[in-house]
Amino acid sequence: MKRPSKTSTVVNDISQNFSTSSKIPFRPRKIRKIISNTPDISNAVSSHNPPIIVKPLTFQGEIDLALQFLRSTDPLLATLIDEHRPPTFDSCPSPFLSLAKSILYQQLAVKAAKSIYNRFLSLLGGEDRVLPDAVSSISPQQLRQIGVSYRKASYLHDLANKYMNGVLSDDSILEMDDETLFEMLTSVKGIGPWSVHMFMIFSLHKPDVLPVSDLGVRKGVKALYGLEELPGALKMEEVCEKWRPYRSVGSWYMWRLMEAKGTSPNVDAVAAIVEAAP
Description:
Layout: H1 12-18, H2 41-47, H3 62-73, H4 75-83, H5 95-105, H6 110-124, H7 132-137, H8 140-145, H9 150-164, H10 170-175, H11 178-185, H12 193-202, H13 215-225, H14 233-239, H15 247-260, H16 267-274
Domain HhH-GPD: 104-259
Keywords: DNA damage, DNA repair
Pfam family, one: HhH-GPD
């Protein structure tokens, strides 16, 4: 099993709760490729084999299947599920827009990031105009004038250029298996493992993502299972294996747990940033 790699945080006031450093010394784990069979919860539970997932979490009934499975395999998580409302995952704009926004929000307080993002939209003429060729045509100087650092400008241009060169596209991102998607997105300047995990959960609604570098999820696992120490990547993989293939949902409840304890920001705020909600 590979150890997870470097990541950068998305928002200063959020990342302080989710990550101990903007450079997380982890290597990304390999995520199993999704295959196309219909999940059978009852058989999966009885044989201790997880159901096979083919649908995003926004597909009708998928959250119910996830909660049924998690209640059956993890009594501690079942109690937490009963104490909180079910997770919701809203529709998102294009992957390119979501990724561009995640870059703009990096290492900034939410209020400042929203202001810069709105100026970015005004510069381009609205969210529907946030397209690779349009972003590529904006000079670093123009971006600097609206509050975007030269470094982030280079990140935006690298993302746009990878789209224009055919390395990435919205269609290919939606079709890639998890492992390939992780490798391709982390090849973009300024997009690290944490950002990719959040994008996969909140923008693509993938069911089986475990953000091992996220401090909120790690603290939740420590609290839920009474661990003596904050779990590292390998311990997270071990403890949360029982959630597979719904580790995204299990992670969602870890955020809720820490939010209730007042030690983590509202997960809806993270979702709003990653989803590129206006």
